[in-house]
Every structure is written in structure tokens, then in C-alpha cells.
Amino acid sequence: MTSDPFAPTPDRVPARPRILKLPRRRALALSGALALLGLVAAACGGGDGGGTTAQTDTGGAGAVVAEAAPSTEFMNTRPGAGIAAAGGNLQAIRGGDNPCEQPGAEPIVISYVGANLAELEDYGLEAIVVEEPALIIDAYTNEVNFNGGINGHCIEFVPHIWSLGDPQGDFARLCTEMPQQRPVFYFSLRVSEPALQCATLGAQIPMVGLYAFAPSSTLEQTGDRLYLDDGTVEHLLTASLDVALSSGVVSGNERLGLLHGISDMAAAVTIIERFGIEDASVAHVPAEFAATELLLQEKQVGLLEGDLTDEEQAEAQRNLAALPAELAGLFGQIERFFLDAANRFKDAGVSAVVSTAEWSDMRRLIRAAELVDWTPTWVANDIQPATIVLADVPKRQAENLVLVSNRRAAGDEVPALDQGCITLRNTASAADPFSHRLHTDAWTLITAICDYLDVTFSAMTRVQGPINADTFVEAMKDTRYETEYGGLITFAPGDSNGAERFRVLQADPECVLNFWGCMRSTTDWMLPANTVAAGTG
Fold first, then answer.
1. Phi, psi of 219 (to 5 degrees)
2. Is pLDDT at 227 greater than 80 in this prediction?
3. All domains of the chain in start order, with CATH
């Protein structure tokens, strides 16, 4: 591992990134490493067992076509090299004219469902500095189409963006339009519950969740129609305990606290007990506390904030008094709950806290801990991304937070595929160049999306015959992607947990990469041994 070229500078001012600007929309010649990877993959026949023929859909005729290697130009792009690395069948992308420009083309539709990220600041989430995922999805799709599509078929990308201000109206429209469009699958940033209900459960359209988790009970409902980037709540709790104990972050004789949110609490306690930890203290957060619409008012009323000036405190009190009585009462309940939980955990001698709760609830407990002068080790997992957990929390609490994660971290080497992702992103039409520094939140999100574009497009190339929702999910069950940055993504029959390798990331509040700091790796990658035994993977 090399030293971090993006460590804080003495004057604390982040250097401006080198901006890549391409004269054309297509990404060419990313690096010699990508070209080498592409040529090797082409020689090996892709990831489908080295087949030498490809099937095209000719109305059921199943004609055999001659093997055609993908162009070197395509293999020098992120889609070409990424699809190869993820086990795709490169004979499915044979070059030629853009099929989307052919008269009467019957496209293969894919979609994306996500909130309008430009509205985050209006809801007190200005610390989240990321860009619209649809940009990179569109650029990736275009590059594949520029090289002949998949088996000669156009891939049509249809985004569905919903407003934080009117989610009900937008989801009503989405739930009408998506079933009619019949996408092969759709990406969702986190698990969108309305889309899950109407599109996945109702119309049987597979969801591929980005930065996504769900209780195991959700997978019991959706079957093979839901694929989770991070995994189930139970999978992530098990992995975080396994890695934290194995790395010495938590010892087996420590008093553990569990901040419990979604999923079955009995199952969470059972997972903890499997590690030989008895009598864990538990605080079960009421579901209504996690409502997104509370976030903006929470900031305005200064909930659980202990460092307000007299003027700020007075303004917070005025804002609280102006709220409807029911809402003001709810904030009173939230404050009492977390202060009580912090005091109970402190009095019980809890020295480390794990969580299945939403990020907003973990942040509330961290703030409450500061108010009662309690400083445990916070063992977060990818349910609680540091991006938002650490925004506006006391520094001494942030320094005690570790994240057991499958994500990239500040200080990591930047592999060729990640470089290719950014170059590809800068081919997006009607978009400013990607101007975020490496290892920022925006960079981590876009590279993670590229990983899942590799996974999903490689699955489509492995389909023999027509590509539809049913054939896509069968291909997804044969996913094993050793990413260049060190993570491992797998899907198999009965296993919809994408992340398999984890490591410990330590919070660095002094880092200038993001508003809140950054995360740095303190361990090697680990493959938790207990996730299968615990029935979570």
C-alpha cells in the first residue's frame, strides 16, 4: 500500500483535482493495464466457461455465429475491462454499429430509481457531497451501445428520479410506468420501499440495490428478485462482529451494547450470542424515529446537540415551539429515548456498541453519549455509512468510531479500473467533468456503481437466448467478482448478499477529503468465517 497522496496539507486546503476532459463522448485508451486485462479475457472466452460460440435471438432459431473478439478500443474502456473482470461473455459484445440507431430496434430496458440528490441540502444533509448516479449508468450504457450492444441489442437506460418533497406523487407515477416499460432490472440507491412493493413484488422486476441492505425477512418475500450490494442486516451484523473480534477492535469479554433498529431483534441477539457474548445491553429504536422527513426539523431544533451557543439554543427553542404539538412531542420522545439508552449503557459498563439501526439513530446515540460523558467504541457497519453518521458529531466520539466495511478507503491505491470509471464518467453528455478528489464520498459512490455495472452487464452477456428478467436473475446467481480494489462480490442461488470481504476502517475527523473527515483502513481484507454458519449468507 502506498502513502496517501491526498493526506491533509499543512494549510488544511485540499488541492484541486486534475480534471479529465475528453474531446469526444467515448472513453478511449484508459491504460495499458486495461488493454492487457481485456486481451487476456478475450483470449479466455470471457467468464462463461470459455465458450466459442454466441447465441443470438432470431425468433427462436438460435443461430450460431462465428466467434468475434471485442475490439481493442472497447477493451480499453471501463465497460470492456470491467465486464471481462466480472466474468462476462465478451463474445456477446462484438462491435459494429450502434443498435439503438437502427430502425425498429427492440431495446433491452434497464432502469434506475433514486432520490433527487440535488435536494439533500434542503433536508439538512448538506454534508453529503455526491453526484447523480444516473450519469455514470448512462455513460456506461452508451459505451456498450457504441460497441454494438449486447448480442446486437440496444440497451436503453430509463431513470426514475423521485423528489424528497413529493415522494408519493413520484412513486405513483413510477409504479405505473415501470411495469409498462418492462425493464430487465433496475438499480435502486438504498432499498426503495415503494419501488420494492410495486415493481419488485408486484411486477417481478429484479432490484439491484446500491449501498443497500434489508432484513432477511425481505428476501423471504422477494426471492431471487432482490440483490443487495451490502447484504442483509443479519449478514452485516455478523460480519461486523466477526471482523471486530478477529482484529481486536472488540474483545470477547467486553460488555457489548446493541442499538437495534430494523430486522428481528431475537435474531440479532442470537447472532451476538453465537460469538460467546452474553447479556448484551439492548436499545430497540421505534421505527417511526427513522422517518426521513424528521431530519430537517431535527437540525433546526438542535436535537441532542450539546455545543450550541446561547443564541443558537434560543433559536432552536423558538423552532421547537413553532412545530405542531404532535411533532414537537415526537422530538421530545426521541431525545428522552436516546439519553435514557446512553445512560443505561453507561451504567451497565458497555464499552462497545454494535448496531442494526439506521444511520440517523446511531448518530443520535453518539450525540447522547457525549451529553452523558460516555465514550465507548462505536462499531458501525455499512448500514451506517460514515458519510452521514459522522456529520456534526463531537470529535472525541468520532475518533472512537470504526466501520466494518466492504468499501474503499482513503490511502488505498487507485487501480486501473477505478481510473477508467472516472474517465468514462467524463464522457457523460450534458454534464460537467467529475471534479471530486479521489477517495471522497462522491468518488467512492461512483466507483461502487461502476462495480455493479460490471456485475449486471456481465450477467446479461452470459445469458444464452433472450435477455429478460427471468434469464437475468439466473445469470446473476453465477456472480463472483474479485474487484481490483480488494473487495469480493458474489451472488449465488439463495444468497443475495453481494459483499463478502470486509475490513476495519478507522474514522479520521482531521482528514480534509470530506466535510466530516474520511475513513482509513487499519486491517487487511477478511472473509468472515461465521456468516454462513449464522445463516446469513
1. -65, -30
2. yes
3. 32-230+411-491 (3.40.50.2300), 234-405+502-533 (3.40.50.2300)
Question: Distance between CA atoms of 77 and 90, rounded to whole angstroms?
Answer: 13
Report how far Cα 306 is from the mean position of its chain's Cα atoms.
Answer: 31
Q: List, as one string, the DSSP characters of 228-261.
A: ESSEEHHHHHHHHHHHHHHHTSS-TTSPEEEEE-
146: CB partners within 8 A, 6+ apart: 26, 98
Q: Which three cell numbers stand for residue 56?
A: 443470438
Q: Quote the CA–CA distance of 384 and 498 in Å, as a whole number.
A: 17
First-to-last alpha carbon distance for the chain, in angstroms, is 30
- pLDDT in the model for residue 69: 65
Q: Is the dihedral of CA 256, 262, 265, 270 positive or negative?
A: negative
Within 143-290, strands assigned E span 155-162, 186-189, 207-210, 213-214, 226-228, 231-232, 256-260, 281-284
Q: Is 348 helix (H, G, I), strand (E, B) or coil?
A: coil
Name the strand (E) or helix (H) holding 520: strand 518-521
| CA–CA gap between residue 425 and residue 446 (Å, rounded) | 8
Q: Could you tell me whether strands 479-482 and 488-491 are parallel, antiparallel, or unpaired per DSSP bridges?
A: antiparallel
CA distance 288 to 163: 21
3-state secondary structure of 402: strand
Please report the pLDDT score of residue 531 as a whole number: 56
> Could you report the per-residue pLDDT of 230-283, keeping only the tens digit for each?
999 999 999 999 999 999 999 988 999 999 998 889 999 999 999 999 999 999
